[in-house]
Amino acid sequence: MTKDKDLPDGPIPHQDRPEGLHSGCECGDDSVVFADPFKKGFTRRGVLGGSTAFAAGLAVQPLTARYAFGAPAAAPMQRVLINVVWRGGNDQHTWFPLLGVPQYASSRPNIRETARTAFALDRNVGAINEWRPLYDTLGAAGFGYVPAAVSQDRTHSHFDAMDVLEGGMNTPSSDGWAARALRNLPNPAVLSAVMVGGQLPKSLAGSQALTVDRLESFGLAGGDEIKARSEATLRKFYSQYQDPVARTAVETLIALRTIRNLGQNEYRPAAQYPDGGFADAFKTAAQLIKARVGLRFVTIDMGGHDTHTSSRGQLHDHATEAANAMNAFFRDLGAALRPYASVVTSTEFGRNWRENGSQGTDHGHGMGMQVLGGGSTGGVRGMPDVAQSLRYNETRGPIDYRDVLTEGLGWLGVRDAASVFPGHRFRPVGAFRR
Length: 434
Hints:
- By secondary structure, the protein is of the alpha/beta class.
- It has helices at residues 35-40, 52-59, 92-95, 102-107, 132-138, 158-167, 177-183, 224-238, 244-264, 277-291, 311-337, 401-412, and strands at residues 80-86, 118-120, 126-128, 143-150, 193-196, 210-212, 297-302, 341-347, 367-373, 379-380, 385-390, 394-396, 399-400.
């Protein structure tokens, strides 16, 4: 590493040191208390204008020394689980119609799918044709579907149902299932978990996960020159110390520089992504996976699924957007990296299996969950019961959605994945490889 001409030789002067980091300083204060600086700010001169990543990376270290924040570019490839949430209550019976169930056709006279608009996944369940390119890319063994997974919510409220879904408990909780899972993930890094676009969801509440939108704007505050000088100053400062917190600071700064450099260089994907925020999120995920920065868990949202009226056209459009984005993602990763990436989808609740008077569907119960990519076992797992459905034409489901997530977390490498959902008894589904 070349010496930065703007940095003075010798120890950092007293006035540039945060409180509690004055060991060896001319002021004579040899006490080293690392917790206070991270509560009060990193420097007295405001070198750091505000960085979510830096704060998150450092804030956890005084509490526990088991976190490792390095993100070496040449790190071995690790498995990555991408959690996609269809917000609004996705109608699983449009995207994945029950082609072999007579009650399906009779209950949806205006919005039903047929053998012309969908292809068969098994003798009872199909997928609309918009999903075919992704199916062809992944193959039958990498394209899995769980037709009727249920949560504990029965309110039909978007807010309440999402709270239960992302909390992963029988009742609303203060933290999220993904946050609990990350605490059991060996050797997490600064960029182990990210939300690409949007705000941090409830599933990651209580974690050190970061939100990432545009890679070129990620990191310390200020313009490129200011960011570079701030990083260099902070690295020089913390490199004086051998304490785990100081080492964490240096490794975090290296990770920030790595991500910033990724954003400054034009990414050339190996596949053509469609336009739109959903595709952009997957392109960012692919870029981070290829850079091997320690990414393990990603959350991506897609809204617009509350289709009470004229639902069929909307959902075919959404399927086109979703399938094309994920197809580009897996093609971008290529055959070498594809086995390391899996997508699991969920929604706050499914829709009723019978259409309403506005050629749409109302809030229901059992949801459809997709399991795609390297961890998927493929095929259809479980079967919804619409012949003896719940009240208001809700879909009865034989599988708890937490069982699917538990298998996904086990595939990811989370220790004791079943403990992520306290109060729930895990029952194997077979949707994920071990």
